[in-house]
Amino acid sequence: MIRKARIDDVKKIHGLLMHTEEHEALVLPRSFSQLYSHLRDFVVAVDDNDDVVGCCALNIIWDNLAEIRSLVVVPSQRGRKLGRKLVETCLSEAVTLGIYKVYTLTEAPDFFAHLGFVEEDMEKLNQKIFLDCLNCARFPDHCNEVAMIMNL
Ligand SMILES: CC(C)(COP(=O)(O)OP(=O)(O)OC[C@H]1O[C@@H](n2cnc3c(N)ncnc32)[C@H](O)[C@@H]1OP(=O)(O)O)[C@@H](O)C(=O)NCCC(=O)NCCS
């Protein structure tokens, strides 16, 4: 099941973002402070015991622009459409908010292409660069992320 994140989920979300394997796409860790203040951005996938097994966030950037970030599904639950459902729930929320352009910066572009995102020139996402990239240790020479965008 996919549901909005709750305060009790924060420690599990933090763990999911901290513990992706080295061979996997990079998912930026987030501090507890960032997770608490952005908790309303998050949806989570939960198992039958209501334990969090995946998460994804929709971050509003500008008047018609939002970012999907912090997407992770625990390895044991992959391949069961949870990643797709998490992203689709965030896209649906964007439409509800009146936001029709959603992008992600990712090291897993094939997954997002499979869901209908298309590659975008990173330079066109200048609001994002101003907000986050300038403070990222990997910017600009060690960034392996690809910008993928979907017009809804
Ligand atoms: C990427 C990730 C979220 C996918 O989660 P998942 O629950 O296994 O994915 P789903 O089962 O929902 O897959 C949905 C569709 O995408 C396809 N897919 C899954 N991973 C894919 C990949 N790496 N490349 C291309 N297609 C992929 C599936 O075959 C499925 O296709 P279908 O719906 O047409 O049958 C998961 O592998 C993960 O957490 N990876 C580590 C972190 C990461 O890469 N995060 C995203 C980038 S920042």
UniProtKB/TrEMBL annotation:
Domain N-acetyltransferase stretches: 1-152
Lineage top rank: taxon: Bacteria
Transmembrane parts of this sequence: none
Pfam families listed in its UniProt record: Acetyltransf_1
The entry's keywords: Acyltransferase, Transferase
The name this protein goes by in its record: Acetyltransferase
